[in-house]
TrEMBL record:
<dbReference type="InterPro" id="IPR002048">
    <property type="entry name" value="EF_hand_dom"/>
</dbReference>
<dbReference type="GO" id="GO:0008654">
    <property type="term" value="P:phospholipid biosynthetic process"/>
</dbReference>
<dbReference type="GO" id="GO:0005783">
    <property type="term" value="C:endoplasmic reticulum"/>
</dbReference>
<keyword id="KW-1208">Phospholipid metabolism</keyword>
<dbReference type="InterPro" id="IPR045252">
    <property type="entry name" value="LPCAT1-like"/>
</dbReference>
<dbReference type="GO" id="GO:0016020">
    <property type="term" value="C:membrane"/>
</dbReference>
<keyword id="KW-0594">Phospholipid biosynthesis</keyword>
<dbReference type="GO" id="GO:0008374">
    <property type="term" value="F:O-acyltransferase activity"/>
</dbReference>
<comment type="pathway">
    <text>Lipid metabolism; phospholipid metabolism.</text>
</comment>
<keyword id="KW-1133">Transmembrane helix</keyword>
<comment type="similarity">
    <text>Belongs to the 1-acyl-sn-glycerol-3-phosphate acyltransferase family.</text>
</comment>
<comment type="pathway">
    <text>Phospholipid metabolism.</text>
</comment>
<dbReference type="Pfam" id="PF01553">
    <property type="entry name" value="Acyltransferase"/>
</dbReference>
<dbReference type="GO" id="GO:0005509">
    <property type="term" value="F:calcium ion binding"/>
</dbReference>
<keyword id="KW-0808">Transferase</keyword>
<dbReference type="InterPro" id="IPR011992">
    <property type="entry name" value="EF-hand-dom_pair"/>
</dbReference>
<keyword id="KW-0012">Acyltransferase</keyword>
Length: 399
């Protein structure tokens, strides 16, 4: 029925090579992943167990079909889910019981097939042989690519159905047996399999990951400038251990006074407790030293890190800027601090910020304002009403 559904929609599936048995390769590694239509490979390969995000399983119709394959569900936002998923993959791949093969799209997200992005290591932790599987869509018009900023699923489905015919090629490459070095190093194993598949597909590889896509998407969504440099900075912070240690977040939570606005490399490294002689530290500093004068705005650096990591809305950005720029607490901020906070979060001019400050004051002699009253002052201005668009209860309360 699955095959007939694709045929009825004009999608011709061509299979090249031979699918290995579970005894030969317990894991199928499929790439590039570029569309929801890649799901057709499930029908071709005899319903292997798939690794899939939990949101897909919640769909009332598709979720039932996914459950039929005895999948391993992944919660992308749950830090413990990754370890649980790896454990389950290892158990199934090495089990003597009659489990189906495990199918994994190691890129972890959809791309436009122009390259292979970094493979996640989950498929390679068991250290067992894998069979690489390549997917191609050799059509004159691309009506299937489903990426972060492209057309939605319904539009792509409609465009594909309007074609007289479309084709999908699935090629099973020879089983890849890992070396002893690859068995002990899943990242090396993943990298070598990716290189092999890229050669078969005749496309390059790229070091971008799903996390990079998520960061760029969030930066665009929140109108945070220089998204590409944010990704590079995230990689460097990860290398320096700042991401895992949540250093910047800890600094904001424990601070007792306002951060120095401009710091040099030595001060930057000292505050973050990293080695200033480390090349990654110097490169991270240079990324934020846009004027090239050997100094960076440390508050802006902290705000960018915090907003990209934690903010989901414009309102979250404003709250984050208060945390970073305030001196006493989230709920109290003076005029100069408010100028900086609203500049970072809303790119607001000084004159506008001062008007918000005056409107948020309870008493004429006040030198600081409360966070909630600032939100009320923003909500009263039509040009900033979009901040509360996704949170009507907050707007109602503040007004």
């Amino acid at each position: 029925m699955g095959r007939l559904t694709y045929q009825a929609g004009g999608m011709r599936i061509v299979v090249r090579g031979r699918q290995a048995t579970r005894a030969e390769a317990p894991i199928l590694v499929v790439a590039p992943h570029s569309t929801f239509m890649d799901g057709g490979i499930v029908y071709i390969t005899g319903f292997p167990s798939i690794i899939v995000r939990r949101e897909s399983g919640l769909n009332p119709f598709i979720g039932k079909l996914i459950n039929y394959t005895q999948p391993v569900y992944v919660w992308r936002e749950d830090p413990n889910s990754r370890q649980n998923t790896i454990k389950e993959i290892i158990e199934r791949a090495t089990s003597k019981e009659d489990w189906p093969q495990v199918m994994i799209f190691p890129e972890g997200t959809c791309t436009n097939r122009s390259c292979l992005i970094t493979f996640k290591s989950g498929a390679f932790y068991p250290g067992v042989p894998v069979q690489p599987v390549c997917i191609r869509y050799p059509n004159k018009l691309d009506t299937v690519t489903w990426t972060w900023e492209g057309p939605g699923a319904l539009k792509l489905l409609w465009l594909t159905l309007t074609q007289l015919n479309s084709s999908c090629e699935i090629e099973f490459l020879p089983v890849y047996k890992p070396s002893e070095a690859e068995k002990t190093d899943p990242k090396l194993y993943a990298s070598n399999v990716r290189r092999l598949m890229a050669e078969a597909l005749q496309i390059p590889v790229s070091d971008y990951t799903y996390d990079d896509c998520r960061i760029i998407s969030r930066a665009h969504q929140l109108n945070i400038p220089r998204a590409s440099t944010i990704v590079e900075a995230h990689k460097l912070r990860n290398k320096l251990g700042l991401v895992s240690a949540k250093t910047e977040e800890e600094l904001v939570q424990k601070k007792t006074e306002r951060f120095s606005e401009e710091v040099n490399l030595h001060e930057f490294a000292q505050i973050l407790r990293i080695d200033e002689k480390e090349p990654a530290t110097q490169q991270l500093f240079r990324i934020h030293d846009r004027q090239g004068n050997g100094k960076i705005d440390f508050e802006e650096y902290i705000f960018t890190v915090m907003a990209t990591s934690n903010a989901n809305s414009e309102l979250d950005k404003v709250e984050t800027s208060f945390e970073v720029c305030g001196t006493k607490s989230l709920f109290c901020i003076n005029k100069m601090e408010l100028r900086k906070a609203l500049k970072l979060s809303l790119n607001m001019p000084v004159e506008e910020s001062d008007k918000i400050f005056e409107n948020a004051k309870i008493d004429f002699a006040d030198t600081a304002v409360n966070f909630e009253f600032v939100l009320a002052a923003l909500a009263a201005r039509a040009e900033y009403s979009h901040i509360f668009a996704g949170n009507p209860e907050t707007r109602k309360k503040n007004i």
